[in-house]
Design goal:
This protein is α+β, with helices and mostly antiparallel strands. It is about 15% helix and about 25% strand. It contains seven helices and 19 strands. This is T-box domain-containing protein. It holds the Pfam family T-box. InterPro entries: p53-like_TF_DNA-bd_sf (IPR008967), T-box_DNA-bd (IPR046360), T-box_sf (IPR036960), TF_T-box (IPR001699), TF_T-box_CS (IPR018186).
Amino acid sequence: MADADEGFGLAHTPLEPDSKDLPCDSKPESALGAPSKSPSSPQAAFTQQGMEGIKVFLHERELWLKFHEVGTEMIITKAGRRMFPSYKVKVTGLNPKTKYILLMDIVPADDHRYKFADNKWSVTGKAEPAMPGRLYVHPDSPATGAHWMRQLVSFQKLKLTNNHLDPFGHIILNSMHKYQPRLHIVKADENNGFGSKNTAFCTHVFPETAFIAVTSYQNHKITQLKIENNPFAKGFRGSDDMELHRMSRMQRLPIPATTNLACCSLLTSLDLTSALFPSRTCSRQLPKTSLYNANQTRLLHSLEHSQASYCSQCQVQTPWCS
């Protein structure tokens, strides 16, 4: 499933980048976008009792760092585009027999709009109002801890779009705005499979996965990195710089006919925002969530009637902090 611009009301504050093997309940310290130096440091932004000891490691972190050092850009299209690098993680510390839900959202990193000029990114104004936040639920959810820990957890089917009327559950973003992906691990309720008001969860944030959404690549260095490392772009390797820019606008990843619904898991009988993710960092009341045609479209559209604003306390763009 999908959606982004807002979130759960959780603080978005990445953890100390030099920390190694950091537990889920550690305190965040470093700023968004700060380079992370450790070879594999799990990041936690928020946790609840009963989720201590869970650790998440970002797969291909060195590749993410290469992009991060230049300024990661992710293409957004009307039809939806997958992320590259793909968001994949290794999870440890789960109870092998307990069922968990793994889901992602992508929240605004700040309240700015950006432009790329003179070979660098700079702030050009205030951010456009964010779209209501969507959640992408991993299609294996809910599954046992043993299942999640057995192999890498991949969110490569997640797609980004600039279509504000998108009916497929893709995450809706604004071009030339900066975003931060977040991973949430939720303990599934034994009765309804997805959660209840007392469901425990924790949130993990990797600063090196932050990116600016674009409709075409702005920095030729990013274009080169994508072509050098993305197997779908191997046909473009060896082109000169001007050709790389042209080719980058022509790139389109295949969209399997079964993808749209396959990667959208249905959440039922659950006010996800107020039940699973109560605001522990912002005292203002969260809005209600709502389901749009859940049985037909299998999409969760959360935070329906919101008008987003940036909360300096939470450090994320949220509709309930205005």
